[in-house]
Amino acid sequence: LDNEKIGCFSAENADQTKTAFANAGVRPLVLGTSSTFHDLDGYESAIKEGYAAIEIAARIGFSAIRVFGDRITQNDATGCIQRVSEGVKALCDYASAFGIDVYLEVHGDFITEQSLAPIIEACGSHPRFGLIWDACHTRNTYPDPRVFFDRFANERVFFERQRDRFLAEDV
C-alpha cells in the first residue's frame, strides 16, 4: 500500500477529499500503511513510509495511522522486537507535531504477551502510541478474547477490529 500514489491523498487534492468525506458524513479514523519494522533491510523504508503516512493523515483529517510488527525471525527475535519498538517510537515522536496517533496492529507474530510487552514497555507511555487489536489474529493464542483484552486493554488498545469472518467451531 503506497498512500503517496493515491491521487485523492495528494496535497493538491486534499481539500477536495476532505470536503467529499465531510459531505458524505465520513470521519476518517485510521490510515492503513504497509510499514513493518521487523526486517533490518526494510527498516529505513518503513520509517519513510510511516512519516509520509503521518503527513497524509494530518492533511486529510485521519486521527491515526496503522503499522505492523509482522514477523519475528528465530535467529533475531530480540532484534526484531527492538526494531519494532524503535520504529513505532520514532513514528510516535514524528507524529506528535501533527497530532496523529500511531497504532501498532496486533498481527503476524506480534500477537503474544512475549512479543507485545516489550513494545508496550518502550512505547506505552508515549501519548501518540496505541494498539489495534484484531481479535482474529489473537484467537489461536487467546481462544477467549477476554484474556487478551484483560491483559492489554489498559495498555493502550484504542481500536478493536472485527472482520466478517467465522470459524467452523463458531457455526
**Count of discrete alpha- or pi-helical segments spanning 4 or more residues:** 6
Biggest sheet statistics: 5 strands, parallel
β-strand number: 5
| β-strand amount | 15-25%
Bulk shape: globular
- The proportion of residues forming helix, as a percent range, comes to 40-55%
Please state the CA-atom Rg, rounded to the nearest Å: 17 Å
Mean pLDDT across all residues, rounded? 85
User: How are the strands of the largest sheet arranged?
Assistant: 1-2-3-4-5
The computed structural class is alpha/beta
SSE arrangement, N to C: HEHEHEHEHHE
The gist of it:
With 171 residues, the protein is of the alpha/beta class. It has helices spanning 14-23, 43-60, 77-96, 113-123, 135-138, 145-152, and strands at 30-36, 64-68, 101-106, 129-134, 157-161.
Task: Give structural notes.
The protein is α/β, with parallel strands linked by helices. 42% of the residues lie in helices and 17% in strands. The protein contains 6 helices and 5 strands. It has helices at 14-23, 43-60, 77-96, 113-123, 135-138, 145-152; strands at residues 30-36, 64-68, 101-106, 129-134, 157-161. The chain has a 5-stranded parallel sheet. Strand 2, helix 3 and strand 3 form a beta-alpha-beta unit. The longest helix has 20 residues, at 77-96. The radius of gyration is 17 Å and the shape is globular. It starts with 13 loop residues before the first helix and ends in a 10-residue tail after the last strand.
